[in-house]
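Following the same procedure, sequence and fold were stored together, as reproduced here:

>
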Amino acid sequence: MKSNGIGIAAGLAAVLGFVGLATAQTAPPARNAAGPALDGEALFKARCGYCHLEGGTGTMMLERRLGKDKALLGQRTDLPADYVKAVARHGLNSMPTITRVEVPDEELERIAAFIASPRKKAVRK
């Protein structure tokens, strides 16, 4: 009888875990203290900066493959927005895929527009 009780408890835990996963909500868009949605540069720093600002793994990998002048994404102007979105969603080499839960489409649009923009100041930490 003891093993039957354990089986029921395990089944209940599995069902509750599945229900929790099924009802989980995606992260809301990043916002600043005033409340409005962040611009592309701020989103880039918040969502991509861990790897793609100075000293980040993504920056080091790009430098190794493409050279120092193309290592910092925030300073590049040669990447079309559609390319940035495709690489983010599908990954490329050591760049993992970024899901819509991690970075919603609306935010990725703004990030890609920022990276593709020929008129931007240099992004540092």
